[in-house]
Design a protein that fits this description.
four-stranded parallel beta sheet, single chain, alpha/beta
Length: about 220
């Protein structure tokens, strides 16, 4: 099993990757993938970095855990492969985009097109055992992804962070608010959305307004 992080991220992450905990984490992941069915596929574990280069980065969306059902997770938070039924949270994301931007509801739940425009779709934990939500938590992934957020905050500027739900909002402490923009709302899951904490947040139009105000190309959501 060979896990590689895209070249554009290596400079800002090389110190983190060299730490002992990261080697232990990769050893654990390799063992899990050899003994159990895990998601996403090995080649997609670092897909968030593969599709969104550090140089093109504009927006960061933080998820928690990869989908643990068959053929769902593709390495990008909230995203699923083409032709896969949209999970409830993604349905609500697309509903908000439709009302916020007046767009038709998308057919594909694959968010690679966002990533290629500079949206880092980062789960806090990058792997999971099939049908066992949270099974790879507290093994080192959160340490690594927190370090990613800190490094983005330190090394870049004018990034828009979208923090959805209480878990993501805890990442606020890792971000320099003087250099970056933070938009917060409830989580798009039905439990939160149906209580009025998600719909109407207009995060997609607001993000584009921020990007436009600093001379960056907007995102085609």
């Amino acid at each position: 099993m060979e896990l590689k992080i895209a070249d554009s991220w290596k400079n800002i992450l090389q110190k983190e990757i060299a730490k002992p905990y990261f080697k232990d984490l990769i050893d654990f992941v390799e063992l899990e993938y050899s003994n159990s069915l895990c998601f996403p596929k090995e080649k997609d574990i670092f897909a968030a970095f593969d599709f969104c280069s550090f140089d093109d980065l504009k927006v960061v969306i933080i998820g928690q855990d990869p989908y643990h059902g068959e053929n769902q997770a593709n390495g990008l938070c909230f995203s699923v492969k083409d032709d896969i039924k949209h999970p409830p949270s993604l349905v609500n994301i697309f509903k908000e985009i439709s009302t916020d931007l007046g767009r038709e509801y998308p057919q594909s739940g694959n968010l690679e097109k966002w990533a290629k425009q500079g949206v880092l779709l980062l789960n806090a934990t990058l792997t999971v055992r099939a049908h066992e939500a949270g099974s790879h938590q507290k093994r080192g992934w959160e340490t690594f992804t927190d370090a990613v957020i800190k490094q983005i905050s330190k090394e870049d500027k004018d990034i828009v962070f979208l923090l959805w739900g209480s878990f993501a909002k805890k990442k606020t402490k890792l971000i320099d608010k003087k250099k970056h923009s933070i938009l917060e709302s409830g989580h798009p899951s039905p439990l939160s959305a149906n209580r009025g904490y998600w719909f109407g947040n207009k995060h997609f139009s607001k993000t584009n307004e921020i990007l436009k105000s600093i001379g960056k190309t907007t995102i085609k959501w």
